[in-house]
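[Q] Does anyone have a clean C-alpha cell version of this?
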Amino acid sequence: MSAARWRRAMNARGTVAPPPRPAPAVSLRTVPSQPIDNARRWIDALREHIGPHHIVVLAGLLVLPFVASPFFTFQVAAQALVLGLIALSLTFLAGYGGMVSLAQMTVAGIAGYALAVLGTSSSAEISLGWPWWAAVPFALLIATIAATLIGWLSVRTEGIYTIMITLAIGVAFYYLVLQNYSLFNGFQGLRELKPPTVFGITWRDPLPFYFLALAWSLGGYLLVRWIVRTPFGIALQGIRDNPRRMRALGFHVVAHRVAAYALAGAIAAVGGILLAWYNALMSPGSVGTSWLINILVIAVLGGMRHPIGAFLGALAFVLLQTFAIDLIDRERFNLVIGGVFLAIVLFSPDGLLGLWAMLRSRLAPRPGLTSNQRRQP
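[A] Here you go.
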C-alpha cells in the first residue's frame, strides 16, 4: 500500500498513523554466499602451501615421460616413485611420530603377496583368480591390518627396541614366504602379476604405469602434508617430542601411535601393489633384509623431516642402482650406497634437503651489506 492511500484510509477512520516504511531493498552484496567464501578460503590455503616451485616441479613431472626415453621413464622415474611411496610411510612414522620402523617393506610385501594370492598369477593352483577390483581392496585391507598389529606390538617400546622388534617381524615374514610353498610358492614366488587393462590401456606400459605411480605418489604426499596439520598430526608430533607430557594432558599415546602405524601401513600397501605390478612378481627377495634396510636408507637420504625427501632419496637410490654398475662392479653397489649414506649422515643429518638448505644459507648474501662489503674478506 502506498503512503497516499494509507493516509486516506486513516483519515476516513478518524485516526492518523505514520505510513508504513517501505521494505529495504535487498542487495546481492549483503547476502552471504557460503560457496564463494569456501572457495576463497580454499584458494587462500592453496596460495599459502603451494608455491611457484611446486608448480614447476609438477609441470616437469608431467612433461618428463614425453621427453625421456621409455627406459628412463619406467626403470628410473616410475621405480623411484614406487619406492618413494613406500619410504614416505617410514618418513611419516619417523619424522612426525618418532618411530623408526624397519617393517614398512614387509607391509608392502604383504600387500603384494595378498594381491598375488587373491588375484591371478603364474601359479593357478595357489591364486584364487579374483578380479582386480576385488583383489586390490582386500590386499590393501590385509596389509593395513597387518601394519596395525605391527604397530600394536611395537609402540610400547622406544628407540632401539622398536627397531629390533620391527626388524624381527620383517625377517620372520621373509623366512615365512621363503619356506612356505603351499601359499607363497617358496623361493620362486608368484609371477606374472600384471596390472589390468582398463579403458583399453595396458597399465604396465611405461607411460601409463608412470602416470599411475605419479598419481598415487602425489596422493600420498598430499595426504601426509594434510595429516600433519590436522589435530591428529599435531598431537602425534607432540607425542614424538614429549609423550609423558602429552599423556598428562589427556592424550592416548598408544592409540595415536597405533593409528599412525595404520595410516603409514595403508600408504606402504599402495606402494606394495605398485611394486608387485612393476616387477610382475612377488618373491622372497622383494621382502628380504636388504630391502628392509634400503627403505631406511632412502628415507634418510632424502630427509626424514620432509615428505618430499622420500622421493628425492628414492631418485638418488635408483640412479645409483641403475648407472653406478657401469662404473663399478655390481657386487660393490652396497659399498657405494653405504658410502653415500655415511656421507649424508655425517655432513647433513637432514638428508639431501638439509644439504641444499645449508648450501643456500651459505651462498645467500647477508642482508644489510653492500656488494663492495661482501667482496671484502
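[Q] Thanks! Anything notable?
[A] The first helix runs from residue 3 to 13.
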